[in-house]
């Protein structure tokens, strides 16, 4: 590209920016009295200017020239286009002079006719450049060339260039891509035309063309992103699954729409209408307002959909996070006073989302506290409230950073400190996450307190302790495997694990104390008689059978916890029972009798281990066979009485 062509790009003669307080369409030649001209003209100069203008303007008069109808001035010759603009600017100055010195001059009338012809030509050029460069005015190209064109905005289109500036232009030309080069040229051409038309009093026509084409670009861009106009009535008629699809698309599209579509449009508008603050403000507002309001009002409409808050809160948090992340860009792009209502719409959605999250959290807390179910969970298993509550809280913890801002200044519903035995939060001065940690600890405490009340529904205290063991263990497991472990800390987890062990110990003590107490004299029996041992075995068998029958339908869902409890029970029973069993067998052998002759021996130590291994599956009647069957007649009798066949041989 020759240097002469690049001069037409970078050396533009913009009018000085007008005050933003003035009307964008109060132009000197067509409205009111013109200001006193800055130049003086002789008669010969006036005649020469008009003659020169007539020659150039007539050449490109589309009404009289077939060539002008099918050819673009700016596409055909950039140098000639520059001369054409200079000619029109000279004609304008001459008209200013004539208006002041000789308002009734025929030259002024002829000049006005020529000006109208030139403005029609420039209107056509403006429209063609905007239309044919739609692909080059994509967001990326506009952003990349914004710094280049901003430099050109400060250049004087008519001044002589020194060698240093031409070197700089050549450097820029070598560094930009072809697409960027075309964009730079097109934007420069648009700016030259806009400056000329505005200064000549034809800004209204220029702006009308710009709005028509560029608004369609915004609308098309939003349509391609899947952003559509929604109403409260429409969204309430949609199923939540459909709303979720639209919401997911909005989350993916909103950042693109703001940081590329609206941002590039703002850049383009600023560059093209650099000469008038008021015009570029009103122009950008008209182009963007409809699409921006549709975009930023969507989050508030989602809040009005018919969906329970617990299922909606996570989507609301995602919406809040998306708007929060791009809020600085929104403030920057829509910084004009005429676009303040767009900023207010985005801010309104942001505040509504935050308020909605706080309301939903309060509703969750109330739902837990007011749960009125009176039916105890079979077998002391995991209560549905525990599963629902911890699933909600654990998933909520993934949004802790977002919640940190939302929870600021929001006090707990009960103005009391959490017990230190339950939770010791980090120092707020050392950890900004402290406030949100307290909020999560409080929500879990509300759930735990409710579960304490649910435990009282069991008539058997032993089962109530097993229920508490299961449910608190479930809560701790959820904390360990989620972001809650970071928020609550290892100290909180350790404290709750100690409570789980205490509940489990209380269950064992109350549930198996009677059975263990029967065997307590075994170590001090010495040389007990067969009758004494026989009576002891009978008492043990009856006690074990009674406890086993009552607990055969109890459940411990977690396999690790289940095995830990079984190991603990067996460690208390099996050594004593094996010792008694062996002593009794030796005594009977001394009297030349067998175990089969004694009806007091219900099962061997291995059988006892098998029976215990089938506890806590929540099934009173096992249907699987043991890997090691009972070998004695007494064992078969015991299995019939207990309505049970061993499931597996449990290792102790």
Automatic annotation (TrEMBL):
Identify the keywords attached in UniProt to this record, alphabetized: Exocytosis, Protein transport, Transport
The region called Disordered is annotated at: 1-29
User: What Pfam families would the database entry show?
Assistant: Exo70_C, Exo70_N
Q: What does this protein do?
A: Component of the exocyst complex.
User: Where does the Exocyst complex subunit Exo70 C-terminal domain start and stop, copy by copy?
Assistant: 249-614
Q: Where is the composition biased (Low complexity)?
A: 14-24
Q: This chain belongs to which protein, by name? A: Exocyst subunit Exo70 family protein
Please give a single GO biological process term from the UniProt record: protein transport
Q: What GO MF terms are annotated?
A: phosphatidylinositol-4,5-bisphosphate binding
